[in-house]
Amino acid sequence: MSFDPSVQVAVVTAGGTVGVALVGVLVELVRRQGSALAEVREHAQEAREQVSNTHSTNLRDDLDRVIAGLDRVLEGQAEHSRDIRGLRADLSHERIERLAVSERLDSHISSVSAA
Question: Are 74 and 110 in a shared domain?
Answer without folding.
Answer: yes
